[in-house]
Specification:
alpha+beta; 2 strands; globular
């Protein structure tokens, strides 16, 4: 029907080398057509009134977005 009413936010937390990135990569590969890995600063950098950031614009039509915090 094309109706999308379900939404989910998953936060994978923990020390490194326990499979978080591997799990997300596997899910992205299964949903390749609809999934995207966004840069870590996509949601934290402000455009301060300069309009839409290209990183945010690239998310249009994507149904699954993953990102990783760095640092």
């Amino acid at each position: 029907t094309g109706e999308m009413v379900e939404q989910c936010l998953a936060i994978l937390w923990g020390d490194g080398l326990n499979g978080k990135s591997t799990l997300l990569e596997a899910i992205r590969n299964v949903n390749r057509q609809y999934a995207l890995e966004a840069a870590g600063d996509t949601f934290t950098t402000s455009t301060k009134g300069r309009g839409t950031d290209n990183k945010m614009a690239a998310l249009r039509g994507v149904r699954m977005v993953t990102t990783s915090e760095t640092g």
